[in-house]
């Protein structure tokens, strides 16, 4: 199992909208970067990830999980090279963790959010996941094996 980070501009798709999608979740559509697409193709049901508000807020605000494996992206107008996964909200991050905090912490110097800022779907290492959960006030982080 693995951990991920999904970036979205709140004006396009916000954490509140993700939560409102409920237990069924929703497709994570519109990814048009091959590395980000390949990351989604590597995901497994139950993998957890961070929901990150990009451009506005610049902070990790929630935790999501994969609820449907990679499949054709319905927003790709039939182009078979683009896939998506479905994700559902798991929980709020009680104290959102900002990009500024992450960049200031040497524990994250190799994190994709710092080294590959433009990548919209990124892997997160186990230790990065646990440390961000700690910073965000989560005592018992939901694990990808849950």
From TrEMBL:
This is EVE domain-containing protein. Residues 2-134 form the EVE domain. InterPro entries: 5hmC_binding (IPR052181), EVE_domain (IPR002740), PUA-like_sf (IPR015947), THYN1-like_EVE (IPR047197). Pfam families: EVE.
């Amino acid at each position: 199992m693995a951990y991920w980070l999904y970036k979205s501009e709140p004006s396009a798709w916000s954490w509140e909208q993700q939560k409102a999608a409920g237990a069924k979740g929703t497709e994570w559509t519109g990814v048009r970067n091959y590395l980000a697409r390949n990351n989604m193709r590597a995901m497994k049901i139950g993998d957890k990830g961070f929901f990150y508000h990009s451009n506005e807020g610049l902070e990790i605000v929630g935790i999501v999980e994969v609820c449907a494996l990679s499949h054709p992206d319905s927003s790709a107008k039939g182009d078979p090279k683009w896939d998506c996964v479905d994700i559902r909200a798991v929980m709020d991050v009680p104290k959102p963790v900002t990009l500024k905090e992450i960049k200031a912490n040497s524990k994250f110097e190799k994190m994709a959010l710092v080294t590959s800022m433009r990548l919209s779907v990124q892997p997160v290492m186990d230790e990065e996941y646990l440390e961000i959960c700690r910073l965000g006030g989560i005592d018992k982080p939901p694990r990808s094996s849950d």
